[in-house]
């Protein structure tokens, strides 16, 4: 058996940057370093908040994972409000969106725990609960996005009158 062979792309993914040129490689890192730093900082904050929620509202083994469901729904609603505000109202600093949207809310919401919760429910003999959780999370999260965006736009329109 031979090891798989992975082909590295010959050209850069950004046509405006040639990473073979040392000056452009260094310039690219300098531009990306602050973004990486704020995403990491925000991610730590969001993950700590999610951990805090799990400690405040623990779920029993085999029980419905309400905490993860509500964390994901709340995170979806908040990111919806945030995106409406920074898209329609506020010209935010270039690091606000990666810090709060990708970092804090990306660290707060969790697809991996959601998937593990479903797997655990199925493995523990609760496939219907796992399926209900799978559907309820998707439905509730999409509903939260839609309702939060609509409500935010209405509030903003009302305030501008």
Explain the overall architecture.
The chain is globular, with a radius of gyration of 21 Å. It has 5 helices and no strands. With 161 residues, the protein is mostly helical. The model has no long low-confidence stretch (mean pLDDT 87). It starts with 21 loop residues before the first helix and ends with a helix.
Mean pLDDT: 87
Which spans have pLDDT < 50 for at least 5 consecutive residues? none
For the secondary structure, the number of strands is: 0
Radius of gyration: 21 Å
Portion in helices: over 70%
Q: Could you give the distance between the termini?
A: 71 Å
Largest sheet: none
User: What's the order of the H and E elements?
Assistant: HHHHH
Structural class by secondary-structure content: mainly alpha
Helix run count: 5
Q: How much strand content do the residues show?
A: under 5%
Shape: globular
Structure keywords:
161 residues, 5 helices
Brief digest:
Helix content is 73%, strand content 0%.
Chart the SSEs and their pairings.
Elements: H1 22-56, H2 66-88, H3 96-108, H4 111-123, H5 127-159
Helix pairs in contact: 1-3, 2-3, 2-5, 4-5
């Amino acid at each position: 058996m031979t090891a798989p062979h992975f082909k590295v792309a010959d050209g850069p993914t950004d046509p405006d940057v040639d990473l073979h040129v040392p000056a452009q490689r260094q310039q690219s890192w300098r531009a990306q370093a602050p973004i990486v730093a704020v995403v990491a900082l925000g991610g730590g904050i969001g993950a700590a908040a999610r951990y805090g929620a799990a400690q405040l509202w623990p779920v029993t083994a085999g029980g419905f994972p309400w905490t993860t469901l509500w964390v994901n729904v709340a995170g979806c609603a908040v990111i919806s409000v945030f995106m409406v505000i920074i898209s329609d109202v506020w010209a935010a600093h270039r690091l606000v969106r990666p810090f709060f949207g990708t970092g804090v809310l990306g660290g707060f919401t969790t697809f991996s725990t959601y998937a593990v919760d479903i797997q655990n429910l199925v493995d523990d003999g609760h496939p219907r609960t796992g399926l209900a959780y799978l559907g309820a999370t998707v439905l509730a999260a999409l509903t939260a996005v839609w309702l939060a965006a609509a409500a935010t736009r209405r509030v903003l329109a009302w305030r501008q009158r």
